[in-house]
Design a protein that fits this description.
It contains 15 helices and 11 strands. It is α/β, with parallel strands linked by helices. β8, α13 and β9 form a beta-alpha-beta unit. The longest helix has 16 residues.
Length: about 350
Amino acid sequence: MPNHDHLARRPTIADVARHAGVSTAAVSYTLNDRPGVSPGVRRRIRAAVETVGWVPRPAARAVRGRGAGAIGFAMAGPTRLFGIEPFNLTLASGLAGELSGSSYELFLREVADVEQEAALYRRWWAEGRVDAVFLSNLRDDDPRIDVLTEIGMPAVVYGDPAVVGDLTPFGDGQLPAMADAIGYLATIGHGTVAFVTGPPQLRHTAHRTQAFLRACRANGIERSTVVAGHYRGPYAARITERLLTARSRPTAVIYDNDVMALAGMAATRALGLRVPADVSLISWEDSLLVRNSHPSMATVSRGVADRGRRIAQMLVALLAGEAVTGGPLEPSWLEPAGSVASPGGRSRNRNR
């Protein structure tokens, strides 16, 4: 295998930024002739380039219009998960559909973990494979943010704007849906509610968990339980069995994705309990997996493909040197269905 260690030792735009006493964004704007940097700062940055010996790599030239014609999207996690967990694939479909009308194509790759993903970004940038990347599923102390900042690769990040640094954030606007879901459950009589989360190291898991606990307090739900899970069905089934065999079992359970929700429904039935008469269930995703369940699964709808299209528009605009601000097309919302009812009652749908 080729050894790229010598590439990592080359001066980066982070070195230029430190020497010039400016942000990496200012360096990137200057090197790519984008507006927003004063003439004096530009001169200082160009002097720093000469001093530290920075030279453009192939992908750096791409930003100035002779690029790879590709947007990168690396999905970190077990490969077998992508065949059944549709969120990333739906997002990628939206990205690819929007990019089909541009001069860029989507370059999709699966990797085992975020460390491999960060290394992949270095290789893509050094070899000129992509012009920009899309990043999702932020972690605490996420190594990918530092790598993208160091090498100066343009990126749009789906997640918390507070931790993306100079990269371009795309806020999701999903948290009000948790208050909506808990408020609805409280209104129809639920007082014991559980939330089976995704991996706890993901920042959006922490944000949803905080939103869940806040909403329970605000709606007077005194018994609330959070169980850290994984985006896999068998794990969610075991958690569901443990929750529903407890002395004070929840009358409603919210799952962090559709695979978990369907596994929870199967586990509920295996215990001889009825959905929704004994337990109400809500999925955070609204893919075809849960739309065709019986009873129909109540979901939090987010318009994932539309978000993918918006992110693609942002990436194309970013590479064109335009000012880019992120934001969701619309907030997420609760779609009650047959899996939700008053405790011991019939299912109830709410028209919006």
